[in-house]
Amino acid sequence: MIIVPMTGFVGSVTASTTPTHVISDQTWTAAGNPYLIDDMLVIMPDKTLTIEEGVVIEFTPTGWLDVRGDLNVLGTAADPVLFTIDSANATSTSQWGGIQLQTDDFDVDLVMRNAIVTRAMNGIFIACCHQGSILIEDSTFLNNNVGIHGYAGYDAIINNVVFMNNTVGVASSDKDISNSTFVGNEFGISSAERTDVRYSLFENNDIAAYGGRGVLLCNVIQDNRIGVQAFYEGWALEHNVIQDNSEIGVITGQYDGIVPHAWGNSFLNNGLGANTIADINVQHTNNINIDFEDNWWGTTDSNIIDATVYDFLDQSSLGLVDYTPTLNANPNGTACPGDDSPTNPDLDTNPTNPGGDVNGLNPDINETGPIGHDNYTDPDTNDTGPIGHDDETASDTNHTDHTPRISLWPGKVNQHNENGIWMTDPDGVSGGHPSTLYSSDYGDRKLEYCQKFWPNTQSIELRDNRETITFWTAGNTDSVVSTRDVYECVFNHNDTDEDADYHHQLDELQEREQQSWEDAMEECDRAWAELDEHYMMMVESLEEQMMDEIEMELWGLDDSLSIRYDEFDVQYNELLIQLSEAEDEDEAAVIIQEIQSLRESEQQVIEWVYDVYHARIADIIEQYDAMIDALDDEAFESLRHDVETDCEALFEELEEQFRAEYEALESMTEVEDENSCGDDERCTDRDENYMEEFGIGHSVPGFTGLLSVLAITGAVLLTGRRGLHETRGRARAVNPFNDAED
Known about the structure:
Helices cover 29% and strands 24% of the residues. By secondary structure, it is α/β, with parallel strands linked by helices. Among the domains are: 1-179, no CATH class; 405-491, Sugar Binding Protein, Amyloid A4 Protein, Chain A (Alpha-Beta Complex), CATH 3.90.570; 498-732, no CATH class. Helix 4 packs antiparallel against helix 7. The relative contact order is 0.05.
């Protein structure tokens, strides 16, 4: 029964009536306290229920609020609105159903200010995900299973809310949380996607923030068991204080998850004095390296920091945590990005972007870390680090030496320099002894080694200056830095400067073409993978919503059956009393006939109840099947076509681009193969062997045409270096999600 001193309700709930509905705009005041709800109370579409300050609403375990219209909860700090279990059922484990917002089918608006929601299964459940707006502020969610749950499909605004002693404070997706407090929960935030949390406190939770995609910005995360445990894409961490968590400050890497970036944070005294960032890739053998640059670790001593970071250096199957450069001081006193005052977060004009902020921490100008900038530790302008510089430091950005040359380790590992980059060749047979003298063990094969890569090499010359080179052992498993002799590979002295320049340009063009195809394939593969991942995420979200609705219907079925069984029990008891008081057999026979009729009636009613809920569940399944079909047939079919079309266009563009470049290069010179090699047949043979080994030659159409066909079928596996990015910008246009928020 619903006890509410209001008009506008359809009776009280009995075995033969539908659940109570709010069929006109209503306002509840404290004068009617307490309001008792023991079944589903439905706010009908386009109707508004306004609950004023001081109202107390009590629910039995079968009671819950189904919002299909608008709900305004307007408490005050002095007189908040209370949603709780009724006193008759207030045991340590009893819960009421909660408030469900049916935003999937209806335009639902919720405004909740100064409310206390306690002892609910789901304090607020948002059924995904299309319509209405949600604002929750200055409220408390206490002792619930889940405080706020569900997928809004757009940001539900949560500001200045306390989540205390819940199993989960906030679950699922699409929340914008600020200035809030999470205390004493098992999970402060769990499995949250597309959720940003700013200027909030996480304290004394088992796990403060679990899962997630979004940004954790300017929060204090302290005295929990685990601070942040990221899986899948994980949160970006910016300007947080993560300290004094008893086991681990941050875990990243579960289920392939990584923290997209982490900067401006303080990691202090986690895990009994040791903060652990574990990139634990337990389901894959490949490593995921993560960026934790520009954070404060309580020290700048790399030995101390290394001891608090668990990564590739501790276990080779893990990824590498790159924490350098570090901050030189604790940033606690520094205002968060964009703030004019460190004490007023409302002044932040750009709360998710540290780039360009004047007063906040500013790791770099394009939000990707220090690489590529002229400050901090690596001014390399092509984002490749020191590789390729003459002196192997990060300061030489010019004057890269492209001269063909080699360097040799005694009979084990050899290197050749391609366009300023030393390449390791762990093949002792193809090299030679590094001495200028002949070796009885291996023979002097330095000329042969040069000709392997530059077939028209006629002689070698020892350079005056040695070079510091990083050699890799066979299998590229270990590196050794050594200063070695370097030998220049000298072309035919009869070659003109134009001939040498031609071959140099040809080498560069072939290298750039190979890199461009690899970049294009990588971008297309990434676009397909992201599209598939996005599709599966949407399907899983719909399936989860479907199961939530089915569970709600089954809950309603149990409640309806319980009510009807109770009513029939009352009638049975009355007939049994009459039977015991019957004065003769005729009267008893009539009562027995009534009992039999009651049993038949009970069976019919129960069957009817089952049929009703079976039909409801079937409708839910049919509805979600249609939504998934529409998702596949309409939205994603178009996106798949776009990716396929863009990739094909990109491959055709690359083919045309390099065909034109090869033709232009050939037209610049009249060099023929015999002119390049002279009369030395070894040169011609080496050139042919080179083409056979690497699949690269001077004939333009064969090379580019073959690559185009293979690339389109996804069968190209090219090897090469990073650092040549002529086509990256065009390739990234293939990704349909580059400019869209998930």
